[in-house]
Structure formats: structure tokens, C-alpha cells
Amino acid sequence: MKATIERATLLRCLSHVQSVVERRNTIPILSNVLIDAAPGGSLRLMATDLDLQVVETMNAVSVDVPGAITVSAHLLFDIARKLPDGSQVSIEVADNRMVVKAGRSRFTLPTLPRDDFPVIVEGELPTSFEVPAARLAEMIDRTRFAISTEETRYYLNGIFLHVTDEELKAAATDGHRLARFTLPRPDGAEGMPDVIVPRKCVGELRKLLEEALDTNVQVDLSASKVRFTLGGEDGVVLTSKLIDGTFPDYSRVIPTGNDKLLKLDPRSFFEGVDRVATIATEKTRAVKMALDNDRVTLSVTSPDNGTAAEEVPADYSSQGFEIGFNAGYLKDILSQIDGDTVELHLADAGAPTLIRQNEKSAALYVLMPMRV
């Protein structure tokens, strides 16, 4: 194999594929990236961790000898990063070694044969639809902070996607808070199986979307696999296994009868919570909210660090009461609200609270209270 590639092109592709590769691997081939040079002048790069696979095709300056080989993904990425801007990188394979040259630099790297490289078998992916990349990115941003990191509840370690007659819904929960985002159902999504997209796939997809926000993403899936294609045929293809589990019926925890409505400015509310939470410790992460007609008094009491309180102007006309929330969870939700107002629909100190920008917003959050 012998090919020449622009350094910028190589670096961009390697940055996409190498982040899938785990730093510590017991199986040596999984540390490698597969480089496949085709006679037509294109290079295909592939990396996998056996659950997630990313493939990207890039145009080479020239392909003199077609062929395929695997080489350390992180090593090649670090080399490409340190090569001079604007240089052309020549890659040549001989005697189980890859020689990488650019300008006056020359590296000789060990390789492993391409036949040992595992490929995820996709099988049939009967459901197929397109989503604007910017909407998909927003869907991820508005929900992924609520994904559980508890490995024992593995079925909560991802974003749950499902369709209704009119909508495509994404939901994530860790048992303390719930985030849900709704899109109009794309053409082709009817009859889609309910699926849970794993946390790592969500993270990698979000990184790739950043460079393709003005395009559409092709989504193909079955009950066990999902494939995201960005940038058409010669773009990036991310394939992932789905979490094999049943996501709980989260609609049961979305309150419908919360009749106390509190409206605030999300930014001043966030900053107030952030300030009083400065003295909170691991044991006392709760911030207490005392609701009055025109204000909310936020307070934190810590046996080690003393007390803190702050008043935030608010619009509230129901009976006053006190309720406590985990300060970190509350800030996570408030940071997702873009507008000038946030609505909190409350029932009492022990019931889940519904949080959203307004009744028209695509994103909706539910937060469980804490005892204070």
C-alpha cells in the first residue's frame, strides 16, 4: 500500500475515528485503525471497540498502490497532529511496517494484518429516516445530562428513542431527574422499534454532528443496531449496538396535576442556586426553596460551612410552601432553558416537579424533590 494525503484531511478523519478507540485494550487489534486505500484515490478509515464502529472516507492526493493495513490509532493521530501545517503525508507499507513521511519527518510504525480487524455485522436495518443534524444535536444536548452512570441499571445508560403517531421522542433518566425532547415524526420512522442508544454512541455522535450542523443525518436501525450516516456516501458512518434492555415507562412519572405555577428568569435563578450552593457539601447538596408571591428564597444549611440565603424575584400566586432540590440537578436543567422565563409546575414538597420553558417547548424535565 502506498498513498499520499493532505495533513489537514488526515488529521480531521483521525480525530473522528480515534476517539472511539479505548486507551487501554487487552486485544491489540482494537487499539488500531484500519486504513484501506482504494484504486480510485480514496482512503477509508475504520475504528471499533466491538460495540461502536466509525468509518470515514476521505480523498487522497494519490493512491499509488492500493491495499489495507491496521496501525495504532492514537499514535498515528498524535503524529498527524504534530506534523507541520499544509504538509502532504505519504504512507507506505512494507515488511509489516508502515512508513509515514512528511517533509523531513519519517516514522516507522508496527502494523497488524487487516484480516484480524473485527467489523460489526449490521444485518437488516429496516427502519430508515432523515433528521436535520441541528435538531439531532439539540435532542442530544437537551437530554444526555440525565443519562444514568450506574452500571447496575444498564438499561438507563443511554437515550431512549421511540415514536408515537405524531412524534419522535427521546428520553433519559437516572431515577432522580428525567429529560424528554420531542420532534415531529420523520417520514419513514413509523413502526420503529423502541431503542436505547448507549451513552458512548451518543457522545461520539454529538462530536461528529458539530461539523455537519447544516446537513441531514440518515438514521437506519433495527431492534439491536443503529447506524448514523453524516455527509452522504463519502461522509462518516457511525454504527453502534443498542442496549438490550427495557426502558421504564417514564410517562408515568411526568406529573399532570401539578397546579402551583412558579415563573422565574432562568439565568438569575441558576446564579442564585449556584451562589447559595457554594457552602453545600457532599452530605448537604439540597437547596431549600421557600415560595412567596413575588419571590423565592433560596437557602442552604451546612453543619460544617454555615448557612447561605438569597432572594430571587418570581411570579407565583399559589399558597406558599417549602421544597428542596439537589442543587446540581437543578442547575443542569436550568442550563438547558434558553428563554427569559422558566416554568416550575409544583404540587407539594414530596411530589415530582415539572420544569419547562413553556407549554410549546420541545424539551420537558421532571425533578424529584429532596428532604430538607
Q: What value does the average pLDDT take?
A: 95
By DSSP (H or I, 4+ residues per run), the number of helices equals 6
Under the CATH scheme, the architecture of the largest domain is Roll
Q: What is the rounded distance between the termini?
A: 67 Å
Largest sheet: 13 strands, antiparallel
As a percent range, the share of strand residues is 35-45%
Share of residues in helices: 10-25%
Strand order of the largest sheet: 5-1-7-8-9-6-2-3-4-17-16-15-10
Structural class: alpha+beta
The CATH H-level homologous superfamily of the largest domain: DNA Polymerase III, subunit A, domain 2
Give me the CATH fold name of the largest domain.
DNA Polymerase III, Chain A, domain 2
Polypeptide structure, described:
Helix content is 17%, strand content 41%. The chain is α+β, with helices and mostly antiparallel strands and 372 residues long. It folds into 3 domains: 2-116, Roll (DNA Polymerase III, Chain A, domain 2), CATH 3.10.150; 127-252, Roll (DNA Polymerase III, Chain A, domain 2); 255-367, Roll (DNA Polymerase III, Chain A, domain 2), CATH 3.10.150.10. The strands form 3 sheets. The chain has a 13-stranded antiparallel sheet. Strands 14-11-12-13-26-25-24-18-22 form a 9-stranded antiparallel sheet. The protein has a 4-stranded antiparallel sheet with strand order 21-20-19-23. A hairpin with a 3-residue loop joins strand 12 (167-173) and strand 13. Helix 3 packs across helix 4 (199-209). The longest helix has 12 residues, at 7-18.
